[in-house]
Design brief:
CATH architecture of the largest domain: 3-Layer(aba) Sandwich
Distance between the termini: 40 Å
CATH topology of the largest domain: Rossmann fold
Number of domains: 2
CATH superfamily of the largest domain: Vaccinia Virus protein VP39
Strand content: 15-25%
CATH class of the largest domain: Alpha Beta
Number of helices: 10
Number of strands: 12
Shape: elongated
Order of helices and strands: EHEEEEHHHHEHEHEHEHEHEE
Radius of gyration: 22 Å
Strand order of the largest sheet: 8-7-6-9-10-12-11
Structural class: alpha/beta
């Protein structure tokens, strides 16, 4: 359980962030990462600092509990003496694992679904059919609110050409395709005809089947067979996580200027926040998240939508 937070009441949180970074900068890697935000990197873990008008929040992370205790102790020892004009009470909360984070609380989930434009009969029936046909695998399907977001993004961006990596039973493809204008095209890539066979009748019913070119096979092979020049206005990646960096590398050069890339599951259930999770998919997603944030070809924003969604617009 290597994540722990501390909430410190103070009227000067940003001041303490700067002082602590200055104080520790000669011992470890400590840098300001934004207004009132900073990150301290120790050999055995990290601590992020964020400030609000009346509070300083510390977020410690490490690969195990012993290392986490070391991060907590180091930050506490260096921060407390800085409170010369007020007492800084640093109480670390009980550690939790990243996959125990409640990113979308049930009450919030219920409320936001009740206040989105309804999905409509075809999408609702597709979701029902997916649950009945795929069982627990139905969790791979985007939620109704995320589908609505995809549709809105396509319409707002004015996209005419789109590509999707990871189709499953076709819910997200249907949302994207019906937002395209007349003559618009979606290249939908998946390895499974078992799941995509469920999609086809619903695409037909929705009147978008003629806009969707379904390509069955490894998506990387499909991507690498495409012309290398920019040709897509919109891209959505929601497939095997370990290959996200490779999909990204192939898609970004093929995005038109102003084109929008949407990456799903960038939190991996909170596991990317937790250094204890070191699976291939966790490492790949962390690497990709860092790449996107530093890619000078793109402007990006990461949103706490469902399991984390990153929007990246090509400059």
């Amino acid at each position: 359980m290597p994540l722990s937070t501390a909430h410190i009441a103070t009227d000067h949180p940003a001041r303490y962030v700067k002082q602590l970074i200055s104080h520790l900068g000669h011992e470890v890697t400590a840098e300001l990462t934004g207004a009132g935000r900073a990150t301290i990197t120790f050999p055995h873990g990290t601590c992020s600092l964020t400030s609000s008008p009346r509070e300083l929040v510390l977020i410690a992370a490490a690969a195990d509990l012993d290392a986490l205790a070391g991060v907590q102790d180091a930050v506490t020892r260096h921060l407390q003496p800085l409170g010369t004009q007020e007492e800084l009470r640093i109480g670390w909360r009980e550690p939790i694992a990243g996959d125990a984070l409640e990113i979308v609380a049930p009450a919030v989930d219920d409320y936001l679904l009740a206040h989105c434009t309804p999905a409509g009969q075809v999408l609702t029936e597709l979701a029902d059919t997916t649950r009945e046909a795929t069982g627990r695998a139905a969790g791979m399907q985007v939620s109704a609110d995320e589908g609505a977001l995809l549709e809105m993004l396509v319409r707002l961006s004015g996209a005419r050409t789109a590509i999707e990596i990871g189709v499953f039973t076709g819910y997200s493809a249907l949302c994207i395709a019906r937002a395209l204008p007349a003559g618009g095209r979606l290249l939908a890539c998946d390895v499974s005809s078992e799941w995509t066979d469920i999609a086809r009748p619903f695409w037909e019913r929705a009147g978008v089947a003629d806009r969707i070119d379904l390509k069955i096979g490894p998506a990387l092979e499909t991507l690498r067979a495409l012309p290398g020049e920019p040709s897509f206005d919109f891209a959505f990646i929601d497939a095997d996580k370990v290959n996200y960096p490779a999909y990204y590398d192939e898609i970004v050069p093929r995005l038109n200027p102003g084109g929008l890339l949407v990456l799903d599951n960038v939190f991996l259930g909170g596991r990317v926040l937790d250094p204890a999770f070191q699976g291939d998919d966790h490492q790949a997603m962390r690497r990709l998240n860092e790449t996107v944030a530093g890619d000078e070809r793109l402007d990006c924003v990461m949103l706490p939508v469902r399991d984390g969604v990153t929007l990246a617009r090509k400059r």
